[in-house]
Amino acid sequence: AQSVSQHNHHVILSEAASLELGCNYSYGGTVNLFWYVQYPGQHLQLLLKYFSGDPLVKGIKGFEAEFIKSKFSFNLRKPSVQWSDTAEYFCAVIPTGRRALTFGSGTRLQVQP
Amino acid sequence: EPEVTQTPSHQVTQMGQEVILRCVPISNHLYFYWYRQILGQKVEFLVSFYNNEISEKSEIFDDQFSVERPDGSNFTLKIRSTKLEDSAMYFCASTTEKNIQYFGAGTRLSVL
Fold this sequence. Notes:
heterodimer; A: mainly beta; globular; B: mainly beta; 7-stranded mixed sheet
């Protein structure tokens, strides 16, 4: 069965700092990859996705992620965080042809003004 | 922007009671899902539903659970006899064929 690891459980940054959240997955076949964000009191929202093609994908709110197939990684980045980025971030995977998302444990990002 | 809506936002029940959690998926979506998140743990897949039948389910989705699409808009999750360990946040999601899942805000189920 596939699994997803997010190594950073809680990250605290100051505004304008750069962000990189790690995500690794274990699955032998092709996968679709996602990052979701959950702002306090709100529902899970899609930040960005990778299905195929350019491994560098851009999402909403200035976020991007890079798929590195050889490392089974899909790290999330943002060059300069804002206080409004305070949220929990979830990496998720679906093997091609399946429909169930497998989530990582989430990373809580706290941005201090 | 269309949304997945879930009701109630918080459900408190006694152990052994039946609960029904309700979801209204986005109107043109074809696939529907339930996930749950026990406090402090990962979001876990329960079941997917397409064309009025279960298309995939996890080991968690045992005989105590059932899903139904009773009309053209609602999608429900029933837990027949709740246990303490069923206490969790339950999320509904829906998607078109492109498999970008849109989530509701969740129902917090507290089993006492």
